[in-house]
Amino acid sequence: MLISCPYCGPRDVSEFTYQGDGTRRRPAAGSQDIAAWNEYVYDRANPAGPHTEIWQHSGGCRAHLELVRDTLTHEISSGAFVRAALRRDATGRHGAKS
């Protein structure tokens, strides 16, 4: 499987480290909601089809990437730096500064 790094170009998956599900949101730091923390720590979806994931280019530039990968075919349909995705989520616009 090839992953296209925005800095380094297409690279083999062996240069990357899977960092986890890109759709999960951590409860607030001060939250004492045990059910919310149990869900965050232990519950995992196992989707078939397109899924948002976080990967780190650990064997290269060390950038964190948010990829949409089809779990059935391993085809990657989109990728962006995690920082750009966080800004997009916070403002509702892609690449807008917070």
Topology:
Layout: E1 2-5, E2 9-12, E3 17-21, H1 34-42, E4 50-56, E5 64-70, E6 76-81, H2 82-91
Antiparallel strand pairs: 1-2, 3-4, 4-5, 5-6
Q: What is the 3D shape?
A: globular
Rg value: 15 Å
Helix content class: 10-25%
The number of helical runs is 2
Structural class assignment = alpha+beta
Q: Let me know the average pLDDT.
A: 88
Strand content: 25-35%
| Number of beta strands | 6
Cα-to-Cα separation, first versus last residue? 34 Å
Strand arrangement in the largest pleated sheet? 3-4-5-6
Largest β sheet strand count, sense and barrel closure: 4 strands, antiparallel
User: What is the N-to-C order of secondary-structure elements (H for helix, E for strand)?
Assistant: EEEHEEEH
Contiguous low-pLDDT stretches (5 residues minimum) are 94-98
Summarize the structure.
The chain is of the alpha+beta class and 98 residues long. Helix content is 19%, strand content 34%.
Describe the structure.
This protein is α+β, with helices and mostly antiparallel strands and 98 residues long. The protein has helices spanning 34-42, 82-91; strands spanning 2-5, 9-12, 17-21, 50-56, 64-70, 76-81. The strands form two sheets. The chain has a four-stranded antiparallel β-sheet with strand order 3-4-5-6. A two-stranded antiparallel sheet has the order 1-2. The longest helix is centred in the C-terminal third of the chain and has 10 residues, at 82-91.
